[in-house]
Design brief:
The chain is mostly beta strands. It is built from 1 helix and 14 strands.
Length: 171
């Protein structure tokens, strides 16, 4: 999967892993989807897209048929599949990792009630990516965390060229 975006046009592409050739182009929204996650069977794409000013998680078929399912309503991002494709995990806006059951019913998808698992999933802001990885069985998670004890302040020096020349080290 690849996301290619420009200011006025963006899209999601499915690429052949061997050749890099575009197999499919799809994107249901004007805003580009991020945090892409292909289902284990390759039939569905979960992704995050903006809707009404909030990130939301959506699913669509691969290849795209026009069918689209909105998984979240209160905001969500970083969707990841359980190894058997029967559960989808995502991060809510407050950093809670949430799970929702995914079932195939009469050719469509049905979702169970969202279940909050635990808090503390970091946001990447506007950067696409993930800060957690579920085990295949969905019972354990690898989670990125900040080490507050080792954090140090960032010092930015402005006009350093001027200060250097005044100290006699300039040109």
């Amino acid at each position: 999967l690849a996301t290619i975006g420009r200011q006025t046009d963006s899209a999601v592409y499915l690429l052949d892993a061997q050749t890099g050739v575009v197999v499919r182009r799809f994107q249901p929204h004007a805003l580009c989807g991020v945090a892409l996650s292909l289902s284990p069977d390759g039939r569905y794409l979960a992704y995050t897209s903006m809707l009404a000013g909030h990130r939301q998680v959506f699913l669509q078929r691969v290849p795209p048929t026009g069918a689209l399912w909105q998984v979240t309503t209160g905001g969500g991002d970083m969707p990841r599949w359980r190894g058997d494709g029967r559960e989808l995990f995502y991060r809510t806006e407050d950093g809670t990792l949430t799970a929702v059951a995914v079932e195939h019913v009469a050719g469509a998808l049905a979702f169970g009630a969202p279940q909050a698992l635990f808090r503390g999933i970091l946001s990447l802001g506007n950067t696409a990516g993930f800060t957690y990885l579920p085990a295949a069985d969905g019972q354990r998670f690898l989670v990125s965390q900040w080490d507050e004890a080792s954090r140090s302040p960032l010092a930015v020096t402005l006009h350093w060229q001027h200060d250097l020349s005044e100290a006699g080290g300039g040109r």
